[in-house]
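LOG
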Amino acid sequence: MLAASAPVVRTDLPLGPPIRGKVRDCYRFASPAHGDTMLIVSTDRISAFDWILPTPIPDKGKVLTAISAFWFDLLSRGPEPIAHHLITTDIDAMGLPAQVDREPLRGRTMLVKRAEVIPFECVVRGWLAGSGLAEYRASGTVCGEPLPAGLVAGGRLPAPIFTPATKAESGHDENVSFAVMSERIGAGLADTLRGRSLEVYARGSAHAASRGIVVADTKFEWGRLPDGSVILVDEVLTPDSSRFWPAAAAGSGRVPDSFDKQFVRDWLEGSGWDKSSEPPVLPADVVAMTRGKYLEACRLLTGVNPAGVT
């Protein structure tokens, strides 16, 4: 196992008040030197069941940044490039003020184009698991979309399906129908997001399959630039936004163990925590196992370890 670096749980940079998500600290640049850009720092915070847990996972933010940067580069190449928000992950090329300590930020920071985020999670499901499996067992549907009878847990769907969800400021995102999405943002934009999300899923799944990983499902976020063009934003095809399975374990009639935080969720489920009070501290072995899963996903998908992890 690679030695862990000191975890980064919170940043307070002299760049104005941050926008803090469950994992990321975001800072807006708005100057002639930077244009309308943002700094996104992926911390080592981990969330589960809508809570930020008290125990970080060392190097997790570096894994998320390395994998996202890999995908943004891969997807921007080829005959049908996908436009995205990433400008650079080189901390020394971001024009940060001299007083900013760059070392804690190295390997976990992206300078990105600032875009108006479209308020829908664009979820693509290719295999039957999670809430989709529970709904299918109850009604034969996934997010209201009818599926053939006889599908098994962890089984491949006849074709990937697009199941949007509203973005929640807190609590769970809410699954909605494509018709609802179209009504709220317009049919043309909804069609664009569905088509591009399915395309990114197909391209990502093909690469992942060549590296021994099944992308069971994932979610994307899209944004619009001032000129109206639609670009891929946030993170993409990471263990936080996706369910990754070892290909050798897929299709066995059960949901395989995954390269993501499912290990943490499973431990919390068995811990006796009521999910309504402050969550418990994670044991050291759970932290180490979770870190190992994230690093293994990065190594398999990208062929390298995250920057600064030796």
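LOG (cont.) second protein
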Amino acid sequence: MIKVGVNGYGVIGKRVAYAVSRQDDMQLIGIAKQSPDYKAKLARRRGISVYSSGNPDAFKGSEVKASGTLRDLLGSVDIIVDTTPEGVGEENKKIYEEAGVKAIWQGGEDHSVAGLSFNAYVNYSSAIGARYSRVVSCNTTGLVRTLFPLQKEFGIKSASAVLVRRGADPSETKKGPINALEVDKHLPSHHGADVNTLMPSLKISTVAIKASTTLMHLHAITVDLEKEASTEDVLRAFSQYRRIALVSIKEGISSTAQVMDIARELGRGDGDMYEIAVWKEMTMDAKRLQYFQAVHQEADVVPENIDAIRAMCGIEKDPQRSIDKTDANLHIGEYK
């Protein structure tokens, strides 16, 4: 039984904590938070031990009683999943080193923080026994999830993607933009380089636009394949992967709103869409493929964190067995 701690209990942290609690080979020891806010209160009501990651005095007088400090939590776990805000995770590395625990960071941190970026489909075996790893961002996870099967089945000469990004997560009222489309100041965007931390030989270019939506990211992807393929060939390749959900305009799914409605109808915790939704309405011209996909930025990295825990702690060396277990416990692949 792997003893797991989660440092941070925001958008990703609370979902990773939930996912860990669903695994029969993992035990959630507790979560660490800076302050006893409503999220800490709800975690405690769910029976989760809450530790103070900042000044312990912040919990004094609160109905949320801290079970100890972050260092106390680290002394009780085999691995810590860091889901703290961008930049904070890197600052925490020294603490994890001193505690001698394995650590997983999220895509907000640079590849260099761990020296190993992770995706279960692409490089599970590379993470077996690793001390540190970084689960790539939601957008990068989305790109890799669909580009990997194409690379494997047909080969890829080059790929490009336009990322229409959500402006903020649903609870982040301090962020915008409001009634605007905001261009990324970097051309190309960093996402292509991030894909290359997992697929280094892939020639890829990406651009990004922020939109005033909170639901999902939407990607428009163009891929030049090495081999000729039909639309049916591509759909067949995608259908072999549970973490890809094929959706169709003919079924009334023409926007991210309907994709998220699917997740809610499936009855998952927080209405999460772990899968990358790919529209069947794609075009294939000899070797050039164009398709749309939707990425639920709050959830798609969650199963990757679970698989990274198994690989790094060495309790499952077979990638497919870990993926199968994670998918079954989180009910991934139910929409076909």
